[in-house]
Amino acid sequence: MKQGTTVKRGNTVKTGLHAKFSLMTATLLLGLAAVPLAATPAAAEETPGPGPGPSPSSEVLPSGEPSPSAPGTGSEAPEPGPSTTIDPPATVGDPPSSEPAEPSTLSEPAEPGFTASGAIGEKWLGLGGAEGVLGAPSSKEYCADGLCQQKFEGGLIYWTSADGAHAVLSKAGHTGPAFFSGGGLAGFGYPVGDETTVAGGSIQKFSGGIVLAWNGSTVFRIWSRGAIGGFWSALGSSAGLGMPLSNESCGLRNGGCLQAFARGTIYWSPATGARFVRGAIQTRWKSVGAQDSVMGYPVTSEICGQPASGCLQRFQGGNIYWSPGSGVWVVRGAIGGQYAATGANRGPLLYPLSNEKCAGGKCIQNFQGGFIGWEGHAGTRIYSKGTECQKLNNGKSKYPTYGANRVLLTVARDYKVSRSTSIYCKSLAGTYVPDWKTDSYVGASGFKPPGVPSGPTRYLFSPTGSFSVTEAFGLGNPGTKLAYRTLNPRSRWGGNPWTPTYNKYFESSSWVGWDENMWYLATRSTHDYRQGVVINYNRPNIVQDAGFAIFLHMNKVPTAGCISLDDWAVLDYMRKSVPGDRIIMGTYWDLFR
Questions:
Q1: Full residue range of the structural domain in which residue 130 is found
Q2: Which of 110, 188, 346, 581 is least enclosed, having the fewest CB within 10 Å?
Q3: Distance of CA 548 to CAs 461, 473, 515, 533, Å?
């Protein structure tokens, strides 16, 4: 049949095109009838939805670990995707459209915004949601190996079953920027807590063992699994030594490390472990060279609760002691050993008042209860402060020592008194301490006042003042370093004013006037001059008739102006004295302030 030919069937007339459309419609209806009923929209609504599973925003990675929202969160089944609507078939007998039908076009749905659900979502909402510090989600939730994370405009939230969900803030936080710039998850691990405000700043802990600590201006790292970080934690973390002032620094002497905190510094070495040093003790330790000095590393932390509210700290090379009344000082070496043997700060010496001072192969240290001196082969010795030697140290002597190695103080309690006390003071690194103390005699008439000549020996007065010692005499040198003169039968000492020999040694076979026969005085039974030392009174610039022959000698009895001591004391004095040593003599009130 040709197109457009009219076919007449009964009362109905259809064109060939209309007949063809009716046939296609009938075929389509038969096809629809063969589709199962469950595929229709009405049937789909009655079909049960899928069981619990990851939140619609999660992507399950190959580990198969569900997101935080999976276990028991009661999340709803996924929403069905956009449906495609199929137009119902044309009814047989419908008139044809006036224009050919256009091909049907399906539009793509708009990309939905990211959402946060489950434990991460709860954490996000707890921080204020999209209006909070994190802002809106900017990624889906990702999970792998038991760790889930989701990115937000202002940071990340991490979740594990052991530690829960915690945020790292990239904008609002203090520790977060350091986390992201330092390598993030790879550099620190995931957070095991939120950033927490503490005294002096804030801290945040991470699974990799690192604590990021913001001290109000700078973020530093604390390696919590290391010896220093573990010790910091054991001391109370920020409540103990406070916030860090540096990162941990190693490469110190003997493989040591340190980290500074607001209230002290922790030092570690393989030999000593981790110990803290702080306050005045730390300042003193650093002043002597810290770990690079003979003191080495601390072997204890500060130990307080000592007598007089004091503290001490032990180091490899000595101890440091502090008390409010004494200050802070180092005690070490042989002196430290002697101090410990007396009970240290709990003994009679109490606390140190200085570090040890050394000079000329000798050392001394000042303590509240005395001195400890060291002299090489002679070892250590404790010296009392309760003698007049201390007045040579504290400015209470009216007469200078001129830096003498040794000073013999001979002191009478008043004028017209011949009995005296002699204290032999020696200098250890510039500090005078008593070597010995004994009784003695001076002139039988006592001392003349300062500046008043003693006069002729027959008046029996001793001069007051500070006099040098340069030479000695006797029947045989006992081992003195002074210029020594061995006496003989011609030995004399001039006592006649206005003669060339006045107040000098000379030799003569005669004994004239007031000259002294030194041989006689050395050999008689009282052996006065068996050993003696010249006291340089009225010499070398001699004033006629001002006095002569002022000696230190044996035969301890009142004298004609000399100082007399027991034999042992004279011999010891001679063996220890050197040229330039001094003798200071007079009444107590004339010698001391």
A1: 58-65+116-172
A2: 110
A3: 11, 16, 10, 13
